[in-house]
């Protein structure tokens, strides 16, 4: 199962959700791989504790190989980093991804990630893809490579407008490139249960037929602590309400198998 967490808006919780779901998956005994496709490398840092030059070149090296040609070019290999957490491995992102992007676009390398994931699926039960905040080469590659897409949403009225566009783009991509891609749903992050407006907005989205999931993720400083400690919530504080919500969300997504 290959799940991509995507919304072209930044700061909605893509990295936080991808890493925490991957951590729950690993804690439940699934061999789990997270592939970080964002040059900002937030997920890479969160799960490995590494920064800057200490981060091994993971996915950027793979993409670079796809650009190399000639008889001695090594092809299709990717370095996998073992995190301190059992069953949880990462393919790291580095800033180099930004420089590579125009070359990859020019050479039409959009299906290479899918091929890599097909191979990796033999070694991993679950693969999570974290995406950059844009509909660019890397996100399109991920949407072509995945079989499920989870959309984080922050209950903001500006984001709502963007959400319609995003659903449309995913539909088009499905038609053109990946008929098997299933929209698992929209997950609300940083939900404020006591405020009237977010709930009203959600009710409207549901009435419009958008696939809003029944589990909301609360806003908590625990998330920031977790980032700072480079330890996903399920390992940092499994009893915390937000950790429990991630467990619930994971269970919900797995039950849709
Ligand atoms: N449920 C949450 N509660 C509190 N803070 C959160 C929560 N989810 C995300 N954040 C914070 O919001 C910011 C953006 O989250 P991030 O996962 O990096 O979003 P994205 O990957 O979509 O840009 C981070 O500083 C993160 O700590
Ligand atoms: Mg991110």
UniProtKB/TrEMBL annotation:
InterPro entries: AAA_dom, DNA_Partitioning_ATPase, P-loop_NTPase. Keywords: Coiled coil. Residues 5-183 form the AAA domain. Residues 103-130 form a coiled coil. It comes from the Bacteria. CDD domains: ParAB_family (cd02042). Gene3D superfamilies: P-loop containing nucleotide triphosphate hydrolases. This is Chromosome partitioning protein. It comes from Pseudomonas fluvialis. The lineage of its organism: Bacteria, Pseudomonadati, Pseudomonadota, Gammaproteobacteria, Pseudomonadales.
């Amino acid at each position: 199962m290959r799940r991509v967490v995507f919304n072209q808006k930044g700061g909605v919780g893509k990295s936080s959700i991808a890493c925490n779901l991957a951590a729950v998956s690993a804690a439940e005994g699934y061999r789990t791989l997270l592939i970080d496709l964002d040059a900002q490398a937030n997920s890479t840092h969160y799960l490995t504790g590494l920064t800057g030059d200490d981060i091994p070149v993971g996915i950027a090296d793979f993409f670079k190989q796809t650009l190399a040609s000639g008889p001695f070019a090594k092809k299709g290999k990717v370095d996998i980093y073992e995190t301190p957490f059992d069953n949880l491995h990462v393919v790291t992102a580095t800033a180099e991804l930004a420089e590579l992007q125009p070359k990859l676009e020019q050479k039409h390398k959009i299906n290479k990630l899918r091929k890599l994931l097909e191979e990796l699926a033999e070694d991993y039960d679950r693969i999570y893809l974290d995406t950059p905040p844009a509909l660019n080469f890397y996100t399109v590659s991920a949407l072509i490579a995945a079989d499920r897409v989870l959309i984080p949403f922050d209950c903001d009225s500006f984001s709502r407008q963007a959400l319609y566009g995003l659903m449309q783009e995913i539909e088009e991509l499905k038609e053109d490139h990946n008929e098997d891609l299933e929209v698992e749903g929209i997950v609300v992050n940083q939900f404020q249960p006591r405020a009237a407006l977010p709930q009203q907005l959600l009710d409207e989205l549901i009435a419009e037929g958008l696939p809003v999931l029944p589990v909301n993720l609360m806003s908590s400083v625990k998330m920031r602590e977790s980032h700072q400690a480079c330890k996903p919530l399920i390992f940092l504080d499994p009893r915390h309400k937000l950790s429990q919500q991630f467990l619930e969300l994971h269970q919900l997504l797995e039950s849709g198998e």
